[in-house]
Predict the 3D structure of the following.
Amino acid sequence: MRETFFTDGSDIYVKVRHAGDAILELLSGGQWTIAPVIQQLSAQIEFDSPGGLARRWYPLGRGGHVVLDPLVCFGRPVVVGRRVATANVYDLFRAEHERVEAVRAWWDLTDSEVEAAVKFERQLAA
């Protein structure tokens, strides 16, 4: 049997290989969790070190150019490091007939930043 321990910043989990890659939450009396959900969230959420509270959420992953941070734009989804709301990027993208280069020029964003904001907003609409 092989076990792997990891945390989401507040709880400790163990991945149990012999149980079909199931995940067990250790500090809750041994509740089984939904493995893919916990693994995905633990990779998307940044926790602060002193209190272990969620600090930022990267819904497209850490390299996905979109972040929700309560200290930036009141927690609205924004392009990482740009403080441009993804909803504004998407609205301009639609107004400019879905031309990435037009949006990029307005806010001095990269193609990948525009595409990430558009992808995120489309996922919300779905």
Observations:
- Residues 1-55 form one domain.
